[in-house]
Amino acid sequence: MATRVRWLGHSALLVEGEGRNVLIDPFLTGNPKAAAKPGDVPADLILISHGHGDHVGDAVAIARRTGATVASNYEISLWLQQPLQGLAESKAQGLQHGGSFLFDGKIRVKLTLAFHGSALPDGSNGGNPCGFVLTFPDGTRIYDAADTALFGDMALIARLYEPTVAVLPIGDHFTMGPREAAYACKLLQPRYVIPMHFGTFPVLTGRPSQLKELLGAIGPEVVEMQAGQTLG
Ligand code: NI
Ligand code: MN
Distance from the CA of 34 to the center of ligand 1, in angstroms? Predict the structure, then answer.
């Protein structure tokens, strides 16, 4: 896999492929498990799955520093262009579910469904939450479910995009827990699964060991990453 995935803690991921850095849900300030500082992390493209503070995180500050394009749903892209956030229209890529765009002629970003909320930190309407399928020219396909419940149409995501890597929340309470994540693996059939959104706060009780036990020997490889660790 020429594409590399680095976990920065909670739901924050840094995916590097084709010499581009894709930063997903960069919640670093106030994240007790953060493995990078917002002033250091590279980004050419930032993806925001929904409006909650533990996903929008430092996206605005990092976008201002790096000049990265920020892709999100349309409502969040409008919020990013408001004076307090101050992103240029050309840097705020607003999409909706089912749609995609090609970043820098190289990396295709598709928005998928997610079942969750999306209110922004200041109470603004954050539209509907999403997940992402990233497709790289080397054939690596990463499905980041972001914050969501289990849903049966993950089977369609599997059939259409055949993800190499599935990034799934397992913490329970705000998202699915290990049992639902194990079922998501059956639907998605990825080569690797990266558990996410657990342990950051006490209510996020699901653990990778539980997912491993539920999947047994036949499931995809559970990549139990430490924050700061890289796969690929
Ligand atoms: Ni959330
Ligand atoms: Mn969250």
Answer: 17
